[in-house]
Design brief:
single chain; five-stranded antiparallel sheet; 450 residues; Jelly Rolls; 3 domains; mainly beta
Length: 450
């Protein structure tokens, strides 16, 4: 009798546990329907070409395709349409059970090119006041036109290419045209592209070349580009087009952009530890046009010469490592520096952050004026690095450190560069707050050779 009772209780316990497990099994829920993806839209009060979109139903994750090469997220969203036409807008909603979409056509009656008056659009395409189309090429004859570093980095610290390092691979013959109208993009391959050898299986006819691979590839025309501004400024390219050395991705982070330079970085679809870098210049900027030699390697169009006192015409400096610069009123008109204007630079988040300027002619420190001298106002005492660089081969340089002995006052520092070869170095690079991240705000003045 006891044995029978024990078996009965054991069976009941097992069935009870089984029943509990069935009751507690997770449920994916019902998939949404197209009705769940319904949305409304209306023009904003400020501009008939800027449209507000609102999802009708709550409780989902929302993804928008605005039909103008731009994307969005959230229950409410907004997009602008500079060009008249009909655009198909699609909302896709997601929940644990799946996804569903609905689409509507919106009609934009008139052009409004003022919506294209974005400074980044202008740099990338030439802008509404220019041609509205700009073609970029790899800056092949300058060192570090291609490189690689850690995925979380901001510069190619592991390897960078020497001038013309990837000649005859297809990399230097490619052309990348950004158009303002319709945000169109053309990738002119001239029949050959350069790619990571991990991507060879995706390119019929690919072959080993220059440590990676080249492949025949047709021109990719009439694709689109998307620029997304945020903590990182990103460029995305549609279809099979891409920029530079192909690593399997088509989304690029903008590292630097100005009228004559675009530097991008991007990840690797196969090796997540890598970040690739490409530097581009406009096609009419002095480059070698395909890899055979010659050309200016980025060229030097500067008309600048030392000394710099920042009292006259504006000059363009290039910053790196997250630094900024501007010409401002002297914040401390005392001691050795009572001039009206000075250069202000806020140190970036990299220990090697700084700025540089290109001169009209290479410097000569062998003619009796061996020193490079700068007045500095620093937030803390410490090292400042000065560097002379060959514009046509940035791997060739001379750099030295000097101590800034006193904080919060103007001091003059000087470095002897008499050992620097004459006729080579036309780029002056300054690293105030050397080897310190976020070192603060520095002021510089009276940069001269003496």
């Amino acid at each position: 009798m006891k044995k029978t009772t024990f078996l009965f209780l054991s069976l009941a316990l097992i069935l009870g546990i089984s029943s509990c497990k069935d009751d507690e099994a997770p449920s994916l829920g019902e998939a949404p329907t197209s009705a769940d993806a319904a949305f409304t839209y209306a023009a904003t009060a400020e501009n008939a070409n800027t449209i507000d979109f609102t999802a009708t139903n709550s409780g989902f994750t929302y993804k928008w395709d605005f039909g103008n090469a731009l994307l969005g997220e959230g229950m409410t969203a907004q997009s602008s349409y500079p060009n008249k036409g009909t655009y198909t807008v699609t909302l896709t909603v997601f929940n644990s059970g799946g996804s569903a979409s609905s689409s509507q056509d919106i009609v934009i009656a008139e052009d409004d090119i003022t919506l294209l008056d974005n400074p980044l659009y202008t740099l990338l395409t030439g802008g509404i006041a220019g041609s509205g189309s700009k073609t970029w090429v790899i800056d092949s004859t300058r060192a570090a036109h291609m490189g690689v570093g850690p995925e979380a980095g901001t510069w190619p610290e592991w390897w960078s290419a020497d001038p013309l390092n990837k000649a005859n691979t297809g990399l230097y013959s490619d052309r990348y045209t950004f158009k303002l109208s319709g945000f169109k993009f053309d990738h002119i391959t001239n029949g050959l592209v350069f790619l990571n050898n991990d991507q060879m299986a995706n390119f019929p006819g690919a072959y080993d070349n220059s440590d990676d691979a080249s492949a025949p590839f047709e021109n990719q025309l009439d694709e689109t580009w998307t620029l997304t501004e945020g903590e990182d400024t990103m460029i995305s390219i549609s279809g099979s087009a891409f920029i530079g050395f192909f690593s399997g991705v088509r989304e690029y982070r903008v590292e630097t952009i100005n009228e004559n330079e675009l530097t991008i970085s991007y990840t690797d679809a196969v090796d997540a530890t890598l970040r690739w870098y490409i530097r581009l210049v406009p096609e009419d900027f002095p480059v070698d046009n395909g890899g055979g030699g010659g050309g200016g390697g980025g060229g030097n169009t500067s008309g600048l010469a030392l000394p710099f006192d920042f009292e006259g015409d504006a000059m363009e400096w290039t910053t790196f490592g997250g630094s900024t610069y501007g010409i401002v009123a002297n914040p401390d008109m005392s001691g050795i520096n009572t001039s009206a204007n000075v250069l202000e630079t806020v140190h970036g988040d990299q220990t090697w952050a700084g700025l540089f300027v290109d001169l009209k002619d290479p410097l000569d420190f062998t003619n009796g004026s061996p020193n490079l001298t700068v007045k500095v106002w620093a937030p803390a005492a410490g090292l400042m690095r000065m560097k002379l660089e060959n514009i046509d081969d940035t791997g060739e340089f001379v750099e030295k450190d000097v101590n800034v002995p006193t904080a919060n006052t103007w001091v003059e520092v000087s470095i002897d560069f008499s050992d620097a070869a004459a006729g080579k170095f036309a780029r002056v690079v300054l690293f105030p707050g050397w080897d310190v991240a976020n070192a603060g705000t520095f002021y510089l003045d009276d940069i001269k050779q003496n």
